[in-house]
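Justification of resources, computational component.

The compute hours requested in this renewal are based largely on the per-chain cost of generating structure records like the one below. Each record pairs the submitted sequence with a full C-alpha cell output. That output is archived, and it is also reused by downstream analysis tasks.
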Amino acid sequence: RIGDYADGIARFVGDVDAEGIDPQLLQDLQVEAMFSVVLTMLEELQEALNGEDAEKAASVLAMDDRLDRINRASGAILTDYARRNPDAIPLCLEFGGVFRKLERTGDHLTNIAEEIADVGIMLDQMAIEFEVEDAVAEQRSYKVRRLRERIEKDG
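The structure output for this chain reads:
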C-alpha cells in the first residue's frame, strides 16, 4: 500500500509544473516537513527492524502526530489559496490528495511500528515469565524475518 501511495505522489510530481507553484504555498503547507517526517519514520523503522529494537519502533508513533497536524492544516490552507487563485483549483485538489497519501503512509508506518514494539514486548515478557531466553530469541528472529518479508512484499 505504501508503494501505491508513493507511486501516486510520484505521478503528481511528474505531472505538475513545479516552477509554477507558489513558493509561499509550499511553505505554508509545510511540504518539506511532511516528506521529511515520512522519510524519518521509514529510516527509524528500518533501524528498529534491523536491530530488533522495540523502543526505537515505539519512537515512531509520536512522529505520526506531526503528520496528522500538518495534514489537518493543509485543507484550510488549500481552500483559502484556491479561493484567492481560482485557476489553481486543480493543483489544490491534487495537493490535497498528496497530503492524504502522506498521512496514510504515516498511519501504515505507525501500524508497523506498533507491531514491532508489541512483538518485542511480548517476547521479553515470555522470556522473563517462562525463563526461556533461547527459545524467545529464536522466535524473535523468526517474527522479525517474517515482518521484513511482509514489508518488502508490500513495498
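Helices lie at 2-15, 23-29, 31-51, 54-84, 89-130, 133-154. The chain has a mean pLDDT of 86.
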